[in-house]
Amino acid sequence: MAEHLAWRVRAPGAPTGEPLVAGREPVPEPGPGDVLLRVLACGVCRTDLHITEGDLPVHRSGVVPGHEVVGQVVATGAGVSGVAVGDRLGVAWLRGVCGRCRYCLRGAENLCPGSVYTGWDADGGYAEYTVAPAASAHPLPTGYTDVEAAPLLCAGIIGYRALRRSALPPGGRLGIYGFGASAHLTAQLAVAEGATVHVLTRDPRARELALELGAASAGGAAEHPPEPLDSAILFAPAGELVPAALAALDRGGTLAVAGIHLSDIPPLDYRRHLFQERQLRSVTANTRADARDLLALAGTHPLRVIASAYPLDGAARALRDLAADRVRGAAVLVP
């Protein structure tokens, strides 16, 4: 039986400081409705850090992480149609939903209580091969290399949903807190739509990149933007930034928190942070429609994807670099 290399979570927050373990194992087989993909690239997302460091509960012991998977179809399971061997597809965070609950029926499948996720409930892309449901595998836009396409599949999709959740008005003023893989794509989308973007982040290199990508200003994470904001998105998993972002909003402004995990939020002062109809919103996963919309936008409005490639055997190093803010843009594993 053919084998491949795969990284599995040894134990979240392992005391050795090495939560991943690599090994050779049989290549998985596609079940009904599935496709088997040869992994061409897999993005390294901050959610992977939350899974390996124990910030999120274990959904599957020893899971293969990775949910920004670019792959080539090498086999299909029974009942799969519209997909051919050789197709290049993308596998994102949302893997499956029940399709029957009231959330699914109203188009909010990201809130489905039965939703499952790539690299958390099922094996993901830190491997040479992976299996995914054909219904949740997305055709990718042309014009992007495999390394460039990988970050679109979570950083891009979640950033797109966060942008919509922020209720940014046409020509509005957007603040972005934190400037990593997702933020550097979202900023470009907002600028393309006519927004004025102000970036606030602790990393001087990220501030330089923000200005390169069209931001009107770039300051420190706790600084006040140069003008009141209509909308803001918090990408950094730092709850202490929530009061600062709310205080920077103009009347009627909205703050969207884009992360799946956030450190504790300090006490809020009602009049300073929420009064005058300021809103605080969370962002939970994505819908498959979000994925289709973002990938279509990326096809018609080319995005500059900043990515650093790591070999597959460097997965642990890529996670360490991400945790230490040593990654410019996105980190991507390439088998």
TrEMBL record:
One of its GO terms (molecular function) is zinc ion binding. Transmembrane segments: none annotated. Its cofactor is Zn(2+). Residues 17-333 form the Enoyl reductase (ER) domain. It comes from the Bacteria. Keywords: Metal-binding, NAD, Oxidoreductase, Zinc. It catalyses: a primary alcohol + NAD(+) = an aldehyde + NADH + H(+); a secondary alcohol + NAD(+) = a ketone + NADH + H(+). Belongs to the zinc-containing alcohol dehydrogenase family. It comes from Actinokineospora auranticolor. Pfam families: ADH_N, ADH_zinc_N. This is Probable alcohol dehydrogenase AdhA. The keyword Cell cycle does not apply. It is an enzyme of class 1 (oxidoreductase). GO terms for cellular component: cytoplasm. Its EC number is 1.1.1.1.
